[in-house]
Amino acid sequence: MAFQGNTGLGTELAITEIKDKINELQNIHKFNIPTVEANNQTIQTEPARRPTQSNTKSNAEVTSTPRYAMIVESIDPRSTCEDILKQVKKDVDPVELGIRVNKIAKLKNQRVVINCDSQQDRHLLKTAIRDTCDRLTVSTPATKNPQLRLVGVINDLDDVKLAKAITSQNRSLIEGLTEDQKAVKVIRRAKGRTREVINVILEVSPQIWNNLKNQKLRIGYQVVSCADQSPLTQCYKCLSFNHKAKDCRNSLCCGYCAEGHDTRECQNRNSVPKCCNCIKAKRNDILHPAYSPECQEWQKWDSIARSSVSCC
C-alpha cells in the first residue's frame, strides 16, 4: 500500500461541499457484493445500479472539478455573513459583467466564499468588489499542485532523468504549454508489483495533470500508465487520515479486516474485508478495505484533501 499527500489549508472550505460531494460519489461508486456469511448470519447487500455511460465519472473527475474560489471579508468585525452578501449583491451585478458564479457558502469568522466558473470570472468579480465595496476585502485561497502516478517504471532512472523523460519523450501530449506549465517534480517512489519496477509519484502543474492523466507515457525504453494520484494522507498503522505512521498515537489496526494487527501481516485475506473507518463512522457499508477508493470515508477525506489542489 502507498498513501501519499497533504491536506493543509482548505479544510474548512471543503466542509461546506462535502455533503454534496458524498451524495454524488455514492451514486458513482456503488458496486455488487455477493451474499456472505458473518457470525452465522446472512448479510444480503443491495445490488448496485449499473451506471449509464453519460453519468459515469471517476472519483478524481468528481472531486477535482476546478473551483475558482475567493474569500470575502469585512473590515467591520460587527458585520455578519449576511451583511457581506447583501453588500456584494447590492454593489456588483454579475449579469451586467457576465460573471459566472456557481456557488456561495458561509464560513466561520464572518467570511464568505464565492466560487466562479473560470479564472477570468474570478478576476472580474474580485476587481469589481475591490472597486465598489470599500469595506470589504477579497483574497484567493492558496492552492497546491496536483499529483500523478506512473505505474510500473523500471528503477533505472534518477529523478532528474525521469522528469526530463516526461517532457522530452511525450512532446505531443504537452504541445503548446509554456515552460512554467511543463513543471514536473518527482516527490516519491513507491514499491511496484515486482522488485524490478516502482510506482513514481509526481507533482505537476495543473496543465500537465489535465494533459497526462489516464494516458500512456514513454519513459526511457518503456510505455507506462499515468494516473491521477490522490493527495490524501492515510496512516498505514491505524488507517486514519491526515497523519503519517511515524506521528501516529493510535492503536494498530488492519486495513483489510479491521483487527488489531499490521495490514501487511493480515492472515484473513480469504475472508470478506471490513473497513475500520466506516465501522467507527457507523456507516452501513463496511464490507471493503479501509484503503479502498470505494470507501465512503476515504472519499470524504479525499474530497477535503483535493479542495486545496488546483486542477484546472
List the SSEs and their pairings:
Elements lengths: L10 H18 L7 E3 L2 E3 L15 H5 L4 E7 L6 H11 L2 H4 L3 E7 L3 E6 L2 H14 L3 E4 L7 E8 L4 H10 L15 E8 L5 E8 L1 H7 L2 E5 L2 E8 L46 H5 L15 H11 L6
Antiparallel strand pairs: 1-2, 3-5, 3-6, 4-5, 7-9, 7-11, 8-9, 10-11
Helix pairs in contact: 1-9
Description:
By secondary structure, the chain is an alpha+beta fold. Among the domains are: 68-139, Alpha-Beta Plaits (2-Layer Sandwich), CATH 3.30.70; 147-229, Alpha-Beta Plaits (2-Layer Sandwich); 252-303, no CATH class. It is built from nine helices and eleven strands. The strands form three sheets. Strands 8-9-7-11-10 form a five-stranded antiparallel sheet. A four-stranded antiparallel sheet has the order 4-5-3-6, sandwiched between helices. A two-stranded antiparallel sheet has the order 1-2. It starts with 10 loop residues before the first helix and ends in a 6-residue tail after the last helix. Residues 1-9 and 28-65 have low confidence and may be disordered. It comes from Parnassius mnemosyne. Residues 38-62 are annotated as: Disordered. InterPro entries: Znf_CCHC (IPR001878). One of its GO terms (molecular function) is nucleic acid binding.
CATH architecture of the domain at 147-229: 2-Layer Sandwich
Number of strands: 11
Helix content range of the residues, please?
25-40%
CATH top level class name of the domain at 147-229 = Alpha Beta
Distance between the termini: 28 Å
SSE arrangement, N to C:
HEEHEHHEEHEEHEEHEEHH
Largest sheet: 5 strands, antiparallel
State the shape: flat
Major beta sheet, strand line-up: 8-9-7-11-10
What are the low-pLDDT stretches, counting only 5+ consecutive residues below 50? Answer: 1-9, 28-65
CATH topology of the domain at 147-229: Alpha-Beta Plaits
Radius of gyration: 22 Å
Q: What's the overall average pLDDT, rounded? A: 83
> What structural category characterises the helix and strand content?
alpha+beta
- The portion of residues forming beta strands comes to 15-25%
Helix tally? 9
